[in-house]
User: Fold these one by one.
Assistant:
Number 1:
Amino acid sequence: MDELTKAEFRRVDDENTRQNRRIGELETTVKEIQKISISVEKLATNMSYMLEEQRKQGERLSELENKPAETWTAMQRTFITTLCSALAGAVAYGIMQMIAAYAAH
């Protein structure tokens, strides 16, 4: 082999070495990108579950917040009913007293 052929073989061999190194680096990069992609997918799934849980907690919180208002409304209704019943009883008693007084004369 002459010097020109040897030099060409060395150049091709050096080029192959560089290409193999670059391919190795690309394979490493692709593996890292795949890991990141899987992590992003897991993160999106977890966020979806968290969003659903937040929605459920919001509903439960609304129920808890409304409970005192419902209790207060029930208490008001009971008070008004009691007051009206007492008033109606007093009016009925007064009417009966007037009838009794009228009948006694």
Note: The mean pLDDT is 93.
Number 2:
Amino acid sequence: MKPKQVTITFITFCIAAFSGMKAAEAASFSVLADGLDNAGGLSFDSDGSLYVTEAGTGGNGACVPPPSGQGDSLCYGTSGAVTKIENGKTKRVLTGLPSLALPDGTGAAGPRDIQFDATGKPYVLVGYAANPTFRDRNLGKTDLGKIITPDFKTNSWTSVADLANYELANNPDGGDVNSNPLGFVIDGNKIVAADAGANNLLSVNTDGSNLQTLATFPQEILTNPVFPPSDAPSNEPAQVPSQSETLGAEFPIQPVPSSVAEGSDGAYYISQFTGFPFPEGGAKIYRVGADGESTVYADGFTQLTDLAINTTGDLYALQYANESAWKGNLDGSVIKIAADGTRTTILSGNGLESPSALTIGPDGAVYVTNRGDRPGQGQVLRIENTKSVPEPSSALGVLPAFGALCVHQLRKRKRKQLVEGVVKTTVQRKSGTSDTSQKSFKPNTSAPKSKEIAGDA
């Protein structure tokens, strides 16, 4: 029997509250764009214009069931978009993109990330957040779960690769079939994408050929988990323990890959979004080498949604949640990890709420999509004053070298997600092992990479 499905909900938290990391010198930010619908990944083109994806608000079309089989269905529309920010003005330059969402427009799946290759050609990653079996059968022809190349001048696009169908046909890690690609990097003539629903890292050539799996990620055992109260509201009630249910000291969770960046060592660095009940400090950054082995590079984070690298080798990690998702605290954090492993909190809370993605601009500033879990309220922020004094004593230092983790026998039980006021990303529980030996981090700054831009970082 395959492990049961789990649905992940993005919510934000304040890292300084639980990790012992002191807040760095207060950063400030300016709002470049507002009123976005479930804002996602963002990237600069070679001319210095900033583009941001909007997953949309679904629509009144056909619907698909949520991956868990419980709760409200996700209904289809063409409300997804790509918005351009230039000279203080915003304009949707690509509209009519596919979108799935709950009836209130939250929990949206649609355009999730955008990147430009070395020639300036744009690529857009479109999420799905459901079982691929229902996509074509229920919705007809749609580009949900695919990578596309848009033409902004004609408001049209061409499909490059079908990641959702790849999961349906191959299911690389052998768990429940789901797909929800969230972030990607362009590495020469190759696209590398993190599929949170399929729980894997995929590679495909920019012409759509040679789609394959690079790595899958292990299930983990959570010790002494803290669960929401039995009467907590949820779109999927079965995720909240009943009053009569007895919960053990160990609980299997399925963290999933949420984004990817490339290092100059040729390895990929992947942010992790932890599974229900979203343990604080439980998220990691993985390194995947050429051999496909995934090892832990750094840990101690909570609900990571994105990574970015600047030209000096600093790695920026974005925390969507500073507390467990079900607590409802929407404060997020931007954390800088220097090449020597020193960590600094650049911004935590203070207006940073449920951030979903970040990038480094040609000016060296950090740009973040804020309030990425809600329709009509998404923002793009430019964070200033990021050159703060590091906190070398942080409890979130880079992991030292350590032996291989033992393989646990994973319990199989179904937990569904809380989704009230948050973005839902579907993943499956899938098991595996991890080689945790430490390797040095060498970010690649020679060309535009995931969450990087030419001449930036």
Note: The longest strand covers residues 74-86.
